[in-house]
Protein 1
Amino acid sequence: MTEPKLPIPLELDSDEQVILVGKRHWIELLQSSLVFLVIGFITAAVALFRAAGGTLLIMREGVSRPLTDPINVALLTLTIVLVALWARGEAKKDRRKDTLWRNPDVLYLLAILALGLAIWFRSIGGELIVIDPVYARAGDAINIVLSLITMFMLLAVAYLYNDWRNDVLIVTNKRVIYDEETMFIRHVRQQILIDDIQQVNVRADTYQATLFGYGKIIIRSFSPRTLEFDFAAKPREIEKAIMDQVRNLRRRQQPDLLRALIEDQVYGNKIPPQSAPALQARTQRFPIPALYPPNPEIRDDRIIWRPSWVYVLLQLFRPLTGFALTMFVAAVLVQFRLLDGVAVSLVVLIALLVFGVWGWWIRESLINDTYILTRNDIIDVDRRPLGPENTRRAQLSAIQNISFDVSFVERLLGLGTVVIETGGAAGGKFTFDHVPDPRGVQATINDYLTDFRKHEKERQLQDALALLKQYDQVQREHGEKMDRESFEKAVEELIGRSLNNRSANETTVDTLNGAVATQIDAHLRRVARNARRRAAIRALHERMRRRNSEQPS
């Protein structure tokens, strides 16, 4: 099976594969652009009508038309229909207090009056619509305005088409990514790990959705966080692709991990540790390294991000502009001889002090606003100049969703904001503001999160395995379990004691046979009891597995 082509740039792990790329249905594009299409069509039609010589309400001298004229008959028939509908509405009228323009009586009267005037106008020689080259007005101001409106409507439709085309839902064997890009405004990306998906729902509860084959995808995780993709084309295929990956992961994850732990913990066959995921962080360096450290700064497996130096320069623009304006004013005052040399020196010194301290304060505030990622935690450190510090920390297990938000200007500058939503005791959001390459930051956090959760499951299974080993040891201490070595040793002791008593050979043989038979019988009973216990445990596991598989997806 060929891998679907990605419509957007996406960094994938070495073993990550794209399974499906879901897009929005064309009905969503039609709904969002319908108003612009209608306005564009009307303005274009009016402009062409006027360019071809079309005009309205022309009076012909010496011409009259009877009521039997076909057009007059059609207008009169329409007037009679409106009068009948009005009369029927009056009979069933609910005396409600409506506003003037919402009152149906007013609307009916206006329509009947307009039709009556049209009939009268045609009867005295007027024409409602005329196309005559004499009246062609292709290049007048009204037609130019109509043409400009039409072009603007077409540009709006093209913009909406580009926005519609860029909204995708990507399913890989590790995660589901929702990417929404609004041109010139912002770029938002959300994702949920396959391992965190609890259920996938498809909502197509309207006749239009059933007829045209679109729906709303709702992906729920084990946290309250959900991912929604509205107007999805072929929603059932998307649902099946996601749930297939969830089932495949569940199917191969637990047995492989249990087998590896049993080999390691019980039989001593050490499994070589898997290497940690490779870092995907691309370091941004300031032209003068002494003024701003590498971003991110990598120390072993500890990654430290700071606001981009481009953002820092933008923030320093204010004190630099203030200093430049002060120098300009001082130069003007010197030019008009309002300041002498001593005063100018004092002004320059004060300006350097004020704006220099201001710029230093901004730089120190931003350079010490750090976002730290470790193998176990995310840490947000906000340290102000001269000491005050605020630190927030949460375990990677508390992360519920990772997304990034990039506006049009931020995309041009190569920076953005990464938002990490957490639950549990940590609660709230961790916001990595104005970091370089937000897409790479999201990918790196996702790699660390995947690695953490994998090892977290290993730790849970190790605890369960240690509990089983302790249970086995207690069984042996209480004599509920006898291994082969203990059984053979007990038989040898019985045989030795019996053979030492040669004076009662027959009695010895009977005693030996009875003792051995008793031990064997007791051992067989223990084996049967343990077999029943294992069967009960297997039945319990099978019941739990069925219950999990019967959960709605």
Protein 2
Amino acid sequence: MADLTPLFAPSGVVVVGASATPGKLGAVMADSLGAYGPNLHLVNSRGGDGLHTSIAAAVAAADSPLDLAVLCVPAAATAQALRDSAAQGIQAALVCSGGFAEAGGPGLEYDRQVRQAVAEAGIRLLGPNTSGFFVPRSSLRASFVPGVAQLSPGPVAVVAASGGINHVLAFHLERAGVGVSLGVGIGAGLDITAPEVLDYLADDEATRVVALHLETVADGPLLLDAVRRLSSRKPVVALVVGRNDVSEFAQSHTGALATSWNTTRAVLRQAGAVVVDDEIQLVDAATALSGRRARPAAAAEAGLVTGQAGPGLLIADYLHSSGVGLPRLQEAALRRISEVLPPLTFQANPVDTGRPGPGYETVLSAVADDEGIDLVGVYGITEPVISLPDAVAASGILADVPVLVGVDGPEAEVRQAQEAAARAGVPLLVGPTSLARGLAALAADAQAQHLRQEDGDHPSAGALVDTAGPWDESRAKNLLQGLGFSTPPRRSCSTRDEARAAFAEIGAPVAVKLLDAEVLHKTEIGGVHLGVSTESELEAALDALERIGAKQFLVERMADKGVDLVLGVRRDPVFGPIAVLGLGGIATEVFADSTIRSLPVSRRSARAMPDELISAKLLHGFRGGPALDADVLAEHIRVLGATLTANPDITDIEINPLRLTENGLVALDAVVITTEEN
């Protein structure tokens, strides 16, 4: 990807369409950029005091190259302004205005002209339809929002689909005492998109963590590749808009589970991002991750030191709900703590110190040194007797383990604590829930790093399949058998006599099903009869199937009882091949309990999928039930995914239910959809 330095660190800037009329975009932008330095030049074709009449005149007057053009001209004039800028050696442009494709009518032609100008002139474009960007450390404020002048430099970069959200998050980070390294609103993303900005930030020394806001994704694989590269070096926190955009379900249950919002969140998490639900969580997580990252761990464990039991309980409760453990401290740590604290407080974790006093640093050190602790949270109401950030710094634990401080108190004292935290280099959050969210983000990042690690992992081989012709259940199960799945003994029958013979051969009880490639959900039309144990029941089942038009029957041995899952692979229109695992059977759409991966998937990442289900306990011998072999399921997922990838004509493969029994996993129903059938 091209270098974005001319955009975010230009040697000079020209505002095209600058104006002396207060309130006009050209005037606001010129004023906002005024603090960047002396190499700012203003252009207006009508001329005026301090205004050049052309871009060429501005470039000729500049003492050093002008890299960035901020275009404050109508949509109809934008393409020519881009060409004129590129002709003068300007490498990047910002277009904040609208009136392009989103406006319809003439805007469609303006959009086409701009795209053509960018492609032919080679200039890079941010926008249109964005409120711009800002780099506080260099006083570069290419934004028409006046408040950006108050933003402080900091370690968090904001990359937002919306210019408005870019500013909202930046102002939240400012109030949190964190600050911003770069804030950019992608807008229409006609040229520069989020993946390029993420790649730029990977090498930006001022950025320690990236807050990513997404509305739509144009190129899923490109985005995931950028997130993988960046998250391997710096934490990425992602907020995805569109929880209720379910669009049109695919023909399979897998499509119903893999809505665009679910899929985007899941594959971002797989790529290494910490995924959050709203802007408040985004700021809390980014603040927490602006400090030290936790070491990779399948399940990071927290130590909590609190000055007050009530807030400590709120934090502990949130952490348990988020899957973050608070393990009992080991005896060595408990001995050290007991030498400092009276026996009146709980000390095993969380450690309730009561009012902090002498020896507080020893308590912090004892918790951080415990071998079972991966990260530490410290909470207290502000008091004159101690500064929590200073105490953390004095304890020396910052070099060994990630530490977050949480405080509450009067506004002035909270601000003092934020300033102390900035000096000490420890992230600080306000309130018990914010502290808990920050700790959960640290743990999620540690788990994401862990899942990315895969020593000696080799792709599973997929089968090349002759996809021509219809795919009924029997043919789909033959494919699965060839891929190593267990399926029940069965017979495809064209006549009632063949069905009777199959019943006698297989033995009761059996399932008798409609066999028709055109019918994907047989239960919905009465196409499945279970537990058929006698000849009279068989005849009744065949009668019922013939009444709904059955020409062929599938007679199959009934499977043992167990837990039903759905496992599917499909081609997502944005992210390409994905795998979906969920609670199966008729509960698939009712509970929508699922987890998703982009393909190919590593063995470690596939193995983690079942434990991400809300119903995970059902898979581990719940009340004497069967226990899942996660390695076997992981290999099934990988092989199924490899088969989809190897056969471009296959769009979906679904097993529903995939039953977990005492004898392992058994595929009880299967659907294969090809491009022929779509």
Protein 3
Amino acid sequence: MLDACDTLEEVERRALESLRPPPRLTLSDWVEHNIYLPHGVSSLPGLVQLWPFQREIADAIGDPAIERVTLVKPVRVGFTTLLTGALGAFVANDPAPILALLPTEADCRDYMVSEIEPIFSASPVLADALGEAKDESGRNTILSRRFPGGSLKIVAAKAPRNLRRHTARVLLVDEADGMEVTAEGPPIALAEKRTLSFADRKIVIGSTPTFEGTSYILRSYSLSDRRIFETPCFDCRAPHEIVWSDIQWPEGRPAEAYYVCPSCGCVVSERHKLEMVNGGAWRATAPEVIGHAGFRLNALVSLLPNASWGKLATEFVAAKSDRTTLQVFVNTILAEGFRVDGGEEIDDEALAKRAEPFGCEAMPEEVLAITAGVDVQRDRLEVTLLGWTEAGPMLALGAFVIWGRPEDDSTWAELDDLLKRRFPHPLGGTIGIDATAIDSGDGETMEQVYKFCFPRAARKIFAIKGDGGFRRPFIERSSSSKARGGMLFIVGVDPIKDHITAKLTGGNGAIRFSDTLPASWYEQLCSERAIIRYSRGQPTRRFERIPGRRAEALDCVVYGVAARYLLNINWAARAEALRSPELALAPAMRPRVIRSSWIDG
């Protein structure tokens, strides 16, 4: 009888034990126990092993007492994987309406296909959590999934109307600085409004910063408790945030870069970084702020092999002479906003003094390709020819004005003759214009531009239309071009103007000028400046015309730069063709056609 009682007590104990909820894990522990990285997502597949600086970020995301988490991040620190792990934890343990906001629809699809679906499929606890993109009910799509107790919707910031239909308790935002203010307002602010009905909402925002004066993520971080990751010195053990000013290297040998402790001056080599990072800790520099955890991190603490101090120093040396590449380094490696002297005018007279004795009729030997940018005015066509080298600077070869109304066929016939011209080349042959971009943005001349460009697409003469916004690609084909009967391209004028401005102010001959260019051309090239204006309460950066200046030369250069990105040049073959013009002009051999006997029966 005693054995029976003991057995009943054991059964009761086990039954009660089975009802006990599992121990509550921090989000970092849960991720390391449950999230698997598959091949194709990580070079180290298997269970996630968080780096020391990732753990507190994860735990802040999982802490119900913290409403908002901001992360100023570089590349190479695994934030996207961390964000996906947090998403999985909400789906598995704390289901709710979840909204993920990314800059573009392409970003949304890539995140779902390249990150969420592979990681969820590889993690047993999440394998069937989101179901198929197209289920029998028809309620699931690739960017909208339902699961027991909640839903996941991934929305592009460029389409803010999509935010109207959604409410969310959890809002996840990636690359916040890649989102521009729309006609309906700042997309992140619109997304946050969708969370107002939840008292226990969670907002997680991460981004690489862009420009210092307009960065959303830097403003958000400034409102947080502003945590920094400090590591102990290998020698004196004093904790410091590793910053770029503490990375040094022997003259001319950046690959041998090392860290210098600000406290004791000790030189610390790369081999001690792992120990330093493992002993690191986050410190809040504004601890009085409650409920908003902010983290600022740079790639100097990354443990990836391609983020060693030597590799980063080598990248810096290669990038520092060009403002465009330097900004990439400052933004993506140091996770700092890039500072520009907004509103300053470029000295056109100083540019004119850099003119050199070359031009279309005296072509520099290194020029192996030419593009043309054409600006259409009411009484003329303005044309600038740009020369391109394999690795060197861009060359402004010459400027032309074709007088005549765009409605007259003779105006376009003269342009056609110019675009057919071939110029003598020092290597022995002649060189022609490889691609041309002609502005069709003026509604009054649009049809004339289409009429000229569409039949000449084989010669890479294309109609283009400029569009604003710093996140646009330099050039992309318009989705409406087929309906118009030809090829229309959209040009991101703001990023190209930014690119040109960086070249003009970067020195080192980033752009070379022909002495055939008139003084007015330089004045037009420097006709705009980047300024910061407030739009719907948010600071935005844009280019503004300097009063009293014309901008035809700048527009032509923008279009010529865009045309360059439509070319895929074999530089070696082009140089060889110029050295052997008789081969370039020889008729191509007709391909041999082998006809199968069964075609004729």
